[in-house]
Each structure stands twice: as C-alpha cells, then as structure tokens.
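Entry type: protein chain
Record version: 2
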Amino acid sequence: MNEKKVLMVCSNPWNTAFRVGDHHLAEQFLATGWKVGYISSPISPLHILGSNDKVELQKRYELYCDGGWKQKNFWTYVPGSLLTPANKCFLSSLWLYHHWQYFTYPNIIRMVRNQGFAKVDLLYLDTLLQPFWLNEIDYRYSVMRIADKSSGFANTTVSACRIEREIAQKVDCVLYTARDLEQYVQGLQPKKKMYFPNGVNFTHFYRRPENYILPKEYQKITRPIILYVGAMYEWFDYNIVRYAAQCLPDYAFVFIGSHAGAHDKLGDLPNVFLLGKKEYEVLPNYMYYADVGIIPFDVQNYSELVNAVNPLKLYEYLACQLPVVATSWRELRNLQSPAFLYRDREEFVRLLSGIIDKIIVVDKKAGVKYAEKQQWRFRAKQILEMVG
C-alpha cells in the first residue's frame, strides 16, 4: 500500500500555543496514517528586530535553528529568509511574494524535497506568503483554505490580494470557513469551492468532571467568572466588555490569549483579569471552571471581518459545558448553535446576569451534543474524500 503524503503550508508554526484549524487537520491526517509535512510562515532578520511577541518568535526561531522537528510520520519547519513579504515599502512587492524562497538558508525547497515531500497526494495552502509551492513540487490534488476575508484587514497589501486570486485560481478547490465568504471566494474565480467551517478537538475539551483541574488563578478570583479565550484583534469589542464589567462589578472578567492593547483599555478595572497566553493542553480547565464564555466582537464597526468569522472557540466552549454569550453576526445565526446572541450592550449584560442568576435556563447537554457533531475528524474526512 502506497504511503499517502500531504504538505501543509500554513501561517502559524506548529509549536505555538495558539492552535488553529491547520494544527487540528494535521493531527487528523496523521491519525489516518498519512505522512505530514508542515511548513509555517518564514522568519527574517526584520522579525527579530521588530517583533512584539518575543515568546512566539523564540519558538519559531528554535524550529528554524533546529532544522525543524521530526517524529514518525510528521515533520515541521519554519523557513528562514533574508527577506520576506510584509506591508513595508519594497517588501510588499509582488516580485518578493514570488521569489523570497531564493533568499532562504538553508534552501527551503531543497529541504522539503529532502524530507520526502517532492511528490505528495495533497498540497494544502493556508497562507498567501508561499504561492511558489504550486510550481515547485508534484501534487495530485491541491486546496486553499480561506478562514478570513483577507481584503478586510488594514495591513493587507495589494500584492497579497493578487496572490490570493492567483492561488485560488490554480488550486483544485478553495475551502471557506464562513457562509459570508462564499461570494468573496466566488469573486476569486476558483475552479471549485466548498463551505468548510471550523471544528473542535472534542475529546480534548470534553472530559469527565474529575479529569478537569481547577486553575491556580481561579483559586484567587471571586466567582462568577466570565471568560474569553483567544486573540483580541481590532474587531474585539473592548467598549462593550468595559461597559459590562462596570455594570457587573461582582463578576470577574477573565481573558486568556494575546491582548497587547487590553492593558490600556481594561487594565484599570478591578474585576478584569488578564492572564496572558496559556498552553493548549490546559485550556479546557479554564473553560470548564468558568461560568460563561463570551465572544464579544464589534460587528457594527468591523462587519466585513466579523461576518466572515466561524469561531473556533464557540465549539470549544460548548464542549467544556460552558454557556456561551456572543455578538449576533450572520455566521453565528446561520450555525443555529445553543449560544445566546446579543445585539446591544444592554442585552449583553442581561444575558450574562440572567445565566449566572439561573433566570435563563441553560441546557449544557445540548451544547455538548452540538459540539460533538463539529469534530475536526469529520472535517478532515471531507478533504480526504476529495483527494480520493
């Protein structure tokens, strides 16, 4: 029987604490017996000089210096290049998007071939930085995964938009994570497209009660605990969170993840706790022992971005038997999940207090059942069936 191979070209490095769909799909490919090569976005001297996240940069730098990491059927690597595309002067040129691989040391193309990925069954692309793989290796099938509306980001360059269109038209199928992205993807003129929402590593988040461990930080925080897990980008609604924290001074608002601007916007509130990043392995403990999980995105000012989001944390919260209160946006309404959706700040506060005070009835079992149907193994199966 021939060994199946996939080369996954993604934005996030393998060893990051921020686990996204690419990581979970890679694990599912491995579980089905595939050999997986996982290449993330490159680092350059400019990253070292200008990075705001030294911890994550260090992890990426270690993978580069070590020549990657290999175990059984899995190999991962972070390329190192003298120049890489960025939204800065000449670094945003279309030419660099197509040619930065020639500035890598060691040469990334030669390294991938030497690792046995010169010919693969599946080429999986989830980044705009490495379009050259479509020309540098042999593949039987190719997919591009679009998880956000790239053109809606402030730092997206004209060249990046052109590259996105180029990749979309060359691959066999474009996967898009939110229904709101369908028209956007269609505009890229792909050969084929497919709705492909996020999923959940269900067995990681859903456990027997005795298998969760109460986090040490929670022992010092007065309940109830309102929890948010994830990055706090520009579309995170700081204003509504601040309003709710002021209206509910006896509630603890806990945030886990990357939140560089949160200290300035929320740090003065005594009932706000910014815990920083946590390893993926311990996240279920923080979710299970919280009282409500929130997804407060600013759909009013960032509708183009938010409506294109299929929130991974929704499924993770529900799998941990955590009630969810979230902004009402189109994708969430389409998902018809057990989450409680709000349209303004007053309703946000009412839902939080109603759930905590048990005025609002929460069916946690329904949340678990919903999450169980959204497992990543079901998503991976869709891709494997396409490849054949």
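Comment: The longest helix spans residues 158-170.
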